[in-house]
Amino acid sequence: MKNEPAPISFDNTEYAFAAKSDTELKKAHFLFNMMGKPWLVNAGIRFTPLAIKWHLPFTKTIIRATIFRQFVGGETLDQTAAVAAKLAKYNVQVILDYGVEGKEGEANFDHARDEFIRVINYAATQENIPFMSVKVTGFARFALLEKLHSEMNKLEGSLIKRYLKAVNNLSDDERDEWHRVRLRTQRVCEEGNKRNVGVLIDAEETWIQDPVDALTILMMDIFNRGKAVVYNTLQLYRHDRLKFLHDYHAAAVERDFILGAKLVRGAYMEKERERAAAMNYPSPIQPDKEACDKDYNAAVAYCVEHLDRIALIVASHNEYSNLYTTQLLDQKGLPHHHPHVHFSQLYGMSDNITFNLARSGCSVSKYLPFGPIKDVIPYLMRRAQENSSVSGQTGRELGLIKKEMKRRGH
């Protein structure tokens, strides 16, 4: 008789917060309570980067003790190792993210490449770190990505054909610059392939995404032969991404590689809508949350239907989407730890999903950024903003924490 998976309940707070001491739980309660006050979050988002820039006393100490500790693994890989080891005790894996953003210049781009390779080499020594995350904007000038995207959108044909023509339309200096971007990306993917660590390429704003997609598909064509090394990130709050998934599954079949697909809802919604309105072009964003949820779940179903050719990461804080994935696996008689199915949530959020999926035997991870406080500030500000603006997220986190505190008799 086969072992049945443990029933999944995302309301089980005993498992959700098993890794947190009473003190840690109280600190999380305090933090989410503060993030439930939009005026306080908005003031913090404006003031914190300036306080860091001006080296105001105690700023780093306060950040380190609050929002940094909740959402970041540490300032160094060694500090992050302690968090990863703790998660491993609960069968929770880690996606490592070197959380430095927005530093331009060839020397910074080369440094970012070397740091990503260092992360891969470290991850390869750890049993519970199967993936690491990369932003192409870490290796490439934003304006160059923007120009290449714009050139691609003037052309007809498939993504790769438009990409190749657009690269040819660049100036000699720009073409040389892009060649260095491609080599940096390839070097990181090469190391991931050699060390058996998955490389997750992050999604970017829609007006620079096409060259990122093309580059990622080309890396899959090289490295995803018989196994998934490189993954693209699909933001399903875009109304064109479900078709994109179908098209590039067809390309993977034709070219005989594994399509790595990390499915997220998205991270730049307000910015995207504002830019579309300001520049008078149709918004790339879904008309409403219902349309986004429908496409997300359809994408999950499509991937589960084609696991022979697609390696899926369900990177979602939506309880239904995670549960739906496990139900689809059950319907097909597939194990929750299928080698082509992985689940992930951000460190510091949705522990009720992560730890209960792990208990059910799912392959699940926490997305764990690390880096110096001054460098991860943009990431932390997004988490604060997200938790104050995402409908019900802070309330949900607080409700679960209160329930567990009550269960523990506090």
In short:
With 410 residues, the chain is α/β, with parallel strands linked by helices.
Strand content: 5-15%
Radius of gyration: 21 Å
Principal-axis shape equals globular
Give me the strand/helix succession.
HHHHHEHEHHHEHEHEHHEHEHEHH
CATH architecture level-2 label of the domain at 103-315: Alpha-Beta Barrel
According to CATH, what is the class of the domain at 103-315? Alpha Beta
Helix content: 55-70%
The main pleated sheet reads as: 8 strands, parallel, barrel
Describe this structure in words.
The protein is an alpha/beta fold and 410 residues long. The chain has a domain of 213 residues: TIM Barrel (Alpha-Beta Barrel), CATH 3.20.20.220. The chain is built from 17 helices and 8 strands. An 8-stranded parallel barrel has the order 1-2-3-4-5-6-7-8, surrounded by 8 helices. The chain is globular and about 65 Å long.
